[in-house]
Amino acid sequence: MExxxxxxxxxxxxxxxxxxxxxxxxxxxxxxxxxxxxxxIDMSIHSHEPEAGAGSPFPLSSGGLDVLFEIACSxxxxxxxxxxxxxxxxxxxxxxxxxxxxxxxxxxFDIEVAGCVRYLENDNQWKAxxxxxxxxx
Length: 137
Prior knowledge:
The protein is built from 5 helices and 5 strands. The chain is α/β, with parallel strands linked by helices. It is globular.
């Protein structure tokens, strides 16, 4: 998350306000209460916020779709970029390659996303991909 926040601040010369959520419930609550120009969604968002005594959060393979549905059902015009560290996105229990996920989400759910990007820690391709998507918005 730190690398993504840092890169967005670099692109927008620090003139960006970033809100972070690490769990499905907090993300959907924040999206319901505020309006955002852009949402970057991790498709395997965690089950709950990490808190002492609450047990370890676990990734929800389709949790990002729930966030996407929340945005799509709202009247807000929030552009969405899907970001994942995995080569595939789980859509209706089927592994869809990241590069095909944008069209699959549009066809199956009639939801348009700005793009889908694979994030690899030691590879800067994700930065170029996000920049390209942002240029089109």
